[in-house]
Amino acid sequence: METPPPSVYLLYGDDTFAITELINRMRQMLGDSTTSDMNTQRFSAIGLDLGTLEEACLSIPFLAARRLIILDHVEKLPQDSSWMDRFLQLLDNLQETSALVLIEHTDVHTRKKEARYKSKSPLYLWAAANPNKSYIRKCATLKGAAFLQWLEQQCHSHGGEIESTAAQMLADLVSDDPLLANHELIKLLDYVDRSRTITIDDIERLTPFRGQSDIFSMVDALGQRRGQAALGYLRLLLEDEDPRYVCGMVVRQFRLLLQAREAIDNGYDPRQVMKAHPFVVDKVSSQARNFLLVDLEHIFHKLLAIDLAVKTGKTFLEVELESLIAALSV
Q1: What is the DSSP letter of 73?
Q2: 172-204, pLDDT tens digit by residue?
Q3: Least packed by Cβ within 10 Å: which of 60, 69, 167, 284?
Q4: In a shared domain, residues 16 and 106
Q5: φ/ψ of residue 301, rounded to 5
Q6: How is the beta sheet containing 134-139 ordered, strand by strand?
Q7: Are 12 and 124 in contact (CB under 8 A)?
Q8: Is residue 30 located within the same domain as residue 133?
Q9: Which of 58, 67, 43, 48 is nearest to 89 (CA)?
Q10: Tens digit of each residue's pLDDT (9 = 90 or more) over 105-128
Q11: Helix (H) or strand (E) holding 69
């Protein structure tokens, strides 16, 4: 007798690219784009109406074997015991026609942090105790040699090859960000037409700080409170790139600014603590002095909130990015 598929999929970690890839593969299994759209619902744990989620999980799939229900940021679920008991009961009673994906954003980059997560998360504990109903996947961003290996494998999956030295340069330029790396890989492979190996010369010609000049100029304008100029640079980026990629670049830039500001405030040389190209570190360090640490923390968290709102269908990315930059320039 065939074993039924899991009804609960727990994806935990901080690698949003890997999480998105997994969900996209699950959507493809539902059928064509029209069918998958009709059988997919996405929720956020922030402000979640549990009754609405329960109704979605009980709904019958339309022209597909299963419905896909995605619940993001489950680390934000209420910790009230009666509420959690009701939620876990929902997991217990899920039918085979529903696939509920739980996304738990957490830092598990050390054994101690991962052990703490596994001992504290009620969702991980439930999934571990119900192996026949659940699938658990760690999605932690890769660093160093592991990221390089992933980058080369990703290149192969797209039908191309990349020199090891070129892969190292690309990793440095994108600061081990898988979303940016994948985006750059596709452009590089299109450039070489997948007929030869990507070299350092190709990266120097296409990738080095491509788009970074507009990002740097935008941040300079923000630091100088030149609102129209900052919006202009943002719009230049949006003209040439996918808004999701632009958002990734902006988030990465403010993450680097935050790291540089923390290093400066603690008396360290940013070059010694930041894993990025020296040119990028020097530029970011100079810009970070135009902001207070608390301001950069606020901006970074706002960008993450925008990302969540867009993924849950509550707003449009371009509008939110322009609104944020306009507000920061005042």
Answers
A1: -
A2: 777 778 888 888 899 899 999 999 999 988 887
A3: 60
A4: yes
A5: -70, -35
A6: 40-44, 67-72, 98-105, 8-13, 134-139
A7: yes
A8: yes
A9: 58
A10: 998 988 999 999 999 999 999 999
A11: strand 67-72
